[in-house]
Design goal:
The chain is about 60% helix and about 5% strand. The chain contains five helices and two strands; from the N terminus they run αααββαα. The protein has helices spanning about 5-35, 60-80, 80-95, 125-155, 170-185; strands spanning about 105-110, 110-115. It has a two-stranded antiparallel sheet. The N and C termini lie far apart (about 90 Å).
């Protein structure tokens, strides 16, 4: 007998409550058991065994964070290539008549049994269409990634040293020099 929806929600609520209570109990127990003896040496910033130089809250260059964030974004999005690629590979194998993941490994009556039932067999046409849809899905996703990468590149977020625009004409150069001389005099 299958449990009804209310029983499933009750089990999930019970699981979440017990998990929350375990975390809360661990935090409270740690608060009571840990030693509390702050000394000036313990309150100093720890710099990998080296004596601290300056305040501990030094503002790092934002470029480090931007490059790390861009790496994470593009690295995580690579994981989204695997499901359509798996579907594409399965469809290509099914199109060629090779045994696929839709079929069980043990034969029944000399034939391969389908995991999802007899209606789960892919015909040649449906396997071809599935492969085509998976390839289009991969192409669209890759195009979106390339557009995002081009945008970030064009915006200059990947340039470690940002270039300063130099005057292109002699008139602009003379105007820039005059402006700099006026600012030096002031």
């Amino acid at each position: 007998m299958l449990p009804n929806a209310t029983a499933i929600v009750a089990y999930l609520a019970l699981f979440a409550t017990v998990g929350f209570l375990f975390v809360l109990a661990s935090l409270i127990l740690g608060w009571f058991l840990r030693a509390s003896a702050p000394t000036p040496q313990k309150l100093e910033s720890y710099e990998c065994g080296e004596p601290a130089i300056g305040p501990g809250s030094v503002q790092f260059d934002l470029r480090f964070y931007v490059v790390a964030l861009l790496f994470l974004i593009f690295e995580v999005e690579v994981a989204f290539f695997f499901p359509p690629a798996t579907v594409f590979g399965t469809a290509v194998h099914a199109e060629k008549g090779v045994r696929t993941v839709f079929q069980a490994a043990e034969p029944r009556d000399g034939k391969l049994a389908d995991v999802a039932g007899p209606k789960a067999r892919l015909t040649h046409f449906s396997a071809h269409m599935l492969a085509l849809v998976a390839m289009i899905d991969l192409a669209v996703f890759f195009a979106v990634l390339l557009v995002g990468f081009a945008f970030v590149w064009r915006r200059g977020d990947l340039d470690w040293v940002r270039a300063v625009r130099h005057p292109a004409t002699p008139v602009e150069t003379a105007a820039l020099m005059a402006r700099l001389q006026r600012s030096d005099m002031a």
